[in-house]
Amino acid sequence: MRDVSVIGIGITKFGELWEKSLRELGLETGLAAISDAGITSKDIDALYIGNMAAGSTLQQEHVSALIADYCGLTNLNVPATRVEAASASGGLAIRQGYMAIAGGFIDVAVVGGAEKMTDVSDSESSYTVSMGSDEQWESQAGATFASLHAMIAQSHMDEYGTSREELSAVSEKNHYHASLNPMAQFPFQVSGEDVSNSGMVSSPLRMLDCAPNSDGAAAVVLCATDKAKKLKKESIRIIGSGQASDTLSLHHRKYLNRLPAIGIAAKRAFKSCGKKTKDLDLVEVHDNFTITEIIALEEIGIFKRGKAASMGFKGETRLGGKIAVNTSGGLKARGHAPGATGIAQVVEIVQQLRGEAGKRQIKGAKIGLAENHGGTAATAVVHILEAD
Amino acid sequence: MSGIVSYGAYIPCHKIETGEIASVWGADGSAWAKNLNVYSKSVPGPDEDVITISVEATRQAMKRAKLNGDNIGAIYTGSESHPYAVKPTSTIVAQAIRATPHLTAADFEFACKAGTAAIQACMGMVADKQVENGIAIGVDTSQGAPGDALEYSASAGGGALIIGSKKVIADINHTTSYTTDTPDFWRREGQKYPRHGGRFTGKPAFFKHVMSCGLKTMKMAGTEAKDYDYIVTHQPNGKFPIRAAKALGFTAEQFETGLLTPRIGNTYSGAIFLGLAAILDIAKPGDRILAVAYGSGAGSDGFDITVTENIEKMDRSETVEDMISRMKILNYATYAKYRGKLRMGGSN
Fold it and tell me: Is the N-terminal amide bond of B101 cis, ω within 30° of 0?
């Protein structure tokens, strides 16, 4: 297996990008990543696109060919593949590019994720997102992701004593980090009290516990590390990659307050590089709801089960704490554009490892982990990156 | 120069409170009221529609100006809830005020600025001396689907302005428009309730057009916010107009008089007419008013207005505030009956 490096990154601001189409977002970030990598279209062997919802929200399928076309890659007949795994689409697209290069099939892949969620009504976008749950057992019965995660949160609170204030601390911290990120959708701070008093969505989850449905795009250029060295590009190596699946519907699982696919994907990623949680300088986890960040940190093994909430409340997951979690602002405050989210997480890790994260820079960061999942973590994908 | 010869207003005497609507849908009424800055909305009675409201407002304007039907050469009624798909409103209004048959008339449909488009049409007719006086009407009995966010604000009411060149109570110094195709709100033929673009109705729609048109009007007039005594804009809820007015440099003292939506809801085409009427009810000679209408997918019309000394000679009793103070509270069941939301026996 060959080593794989990230040699280029690109990202848009996340938010309500009504003036930009899906193809424009894909083109903008793809070109930014290619430019950052210092390569040309002739160097690209394959294109992987993470996208969840274009068929439903834009009536546009065949997104891979669309983005390839608008990026000017069709005259070179570059193979383009769409990857869909609900909100894990972006992270999984990176894994496809990673495996193709590591396996020796190609040398350079551009992996992009783009999503348009706000050109339709709130109810239509919520309906689209719910397609990532089990249609027969969950969405058809009226369960939304907010209500499913509310059950997860309630169970976690019952078993481990996780409190309202501890949930709020997750959102407060991520908004603080976002206030330092110019690409964040909500670059402003909120207090824990603001979160605890925000409108009820599905008890115990309130509006400021929930990530938005955003427009946005992100892209990375992956390259075989030996080739990257020949190109004399500063590269950030992907040293670990893991993926795992679980039952699609929540009620088929043994525990309501665990998301085991995240832990298994992380274990596989750690095994592939021989690193441990203590080696990590930062993590980006999939905080589609505040409770999910807490459980993800427990599944990855950064904190013991039942302890992540209190550690976060004490400030251990904040910039300057024991381990910085979601320095980008996370899904909650950077924004959540499903197909782009997993890639945006890797972009954040790369910026931190390059020392280019501006006001939110972690001094001397060497190793970072990105955890991205779909639905209630029926698909989970974890990547570990290290600065050379 | 053409200006406002007289004005009239009409608001139905029933209202429903935001909390009452919210209680039916299991929603937090105080949160809805605070978020929209709408605490109650007017409700038309079972015998009221755009025609009856137009007639009431026009009769008040005619009475104030002591004019009769023979003095009226044009009537244009702007609304997006004309009672008939095929049969005009304006001819019925003309007949009711005895202005027929020697006049021109037409109905305007141009989202919530259909009425201000009618003002501009009348201004052109008067300036060209084709008519001595024209009546521009803006009225709606707007629709909001049960349970939809619009149900908390969609209300009824409107006003009429007599536009002429003699004995004007207010000069219209300048008017301009800012027009784009920005579809943030629509209702297709045959659909009972409109659809809307949620948050898209804000920044790229209402704010872009109202702000641009307001600035354009002031540039044309060579004025700044401090030169005005009042501002009135379209008011789809109670928050948007405040935010727009403040962004244009106006203060609460300037925008509060014309801001009626918190108490009567969004009267759509009627909103700017009613806000302007509330201002004219208390205005003094020399007062300057900036009025900026907005219609979804239609754009904005701006008006720079100066009140003249003639306003002091006008009987301005039966004010907008009088109408609001008379409104009686309905429960949701009666509201549903009045708005035709109940399926009656024998009906389809």
Answer: yes
Decide if B31 and A199 are in contact by the 8 Å CB cutoff: yes
Measured in angstroms, the CA of A17 and the nearest CA of chain B are apart by: 10
Task: For residue range B131-160, list pLDDT tens digits in order.
Answer: 999 999 999 999 888 988 899 999 999 999
Contacts of B31 in chain A (CB under 8 A): 199
Number of domains in chain A: 2
Any domain includes A126: no
**Which of B200, B201, B203 should be substituted to probe chain A, the one whose Cβ sees the most A Cβ atoms within 10 Å?**
B200
SS (H, E, C) B290-323: EEEEEECCCEEEEEEEEECHHHHHCCCCCCHHHH
Please state which CATH class domain B3-338 belongs to: alpha beta
Say which CATH number the domain at A319 has: 3.40.47.10
Boundaries of domain holding A63: 4-121+214-237
Q: Is there a single domain that holds both residue A8 and residue A70? A: yes
**Is the pLDDT confidence value at A266 over 70?**
yes
Collect all residues of chain B within an 8 Å Cβ-Cβ radius of residue A16: 199-200
B234 is a catalytic site residue: yes
Whether A297 and A222 map to the same domain: the answer is: no
- Per-residue pLDDT at B347: 53
Residue A221 CA to residue A219 CA, distance in Å, equals 7
Could you tell me how many CB contacts below 8 A there are between chain A and chain B? 15
A199, A69: one domain: no
pLDDT in tens, A345-382: 999 999 999 999 999 999 999 999 999 999 999 999 99
The domain boundary residue, chosen from A237, A252, A277: A237
> How far is A121 from chain B, CA to nearest CA, in Å?
6
Q: Which of A17, A19, A120, A121 to mutate to test the interface with B (most CBs of B within 10 A)?
A: A121
Q: State the pLDDT at residue A192.
A: 98
Average pLDDT over residues B286-312: 97
What's the pLDDT at B285?
Answer: 98
**Is B253 a residue of the active site?**
no
Q: Where are the beta strands (DSSP E) in chain B?
A: 3-10, 14-17, 40-43, 74-78, 104-108, 133-141, 156-164, 170-178, 185-186, 195-196, 230-233, 288-295, 299-307, 328-329
Nearest Cβ partner of A18 from B28, B196, B200?
Answer: B200
B80 is catalytic: yes
Residues A156 and A219 in one domain: no
Question: What is the ipTM, given to two decimal places?
Answer: 0.70
Domain identity same for A114 and A169: no
Mean pLDDT across chain B, nearest whole number?
96
A165-180 mean pLDDT? 98
pLDDT confidence of residue B143: 85
Q: Is B195 on the interface with A (CB under 8 A)?
A: yes
Residue to substitute from A16, A198, A201, interface B, most B β-carbons within 10 A: A16
d(CA B290, CA B251): 13
Residue A72 tokens, joined: 């000017």
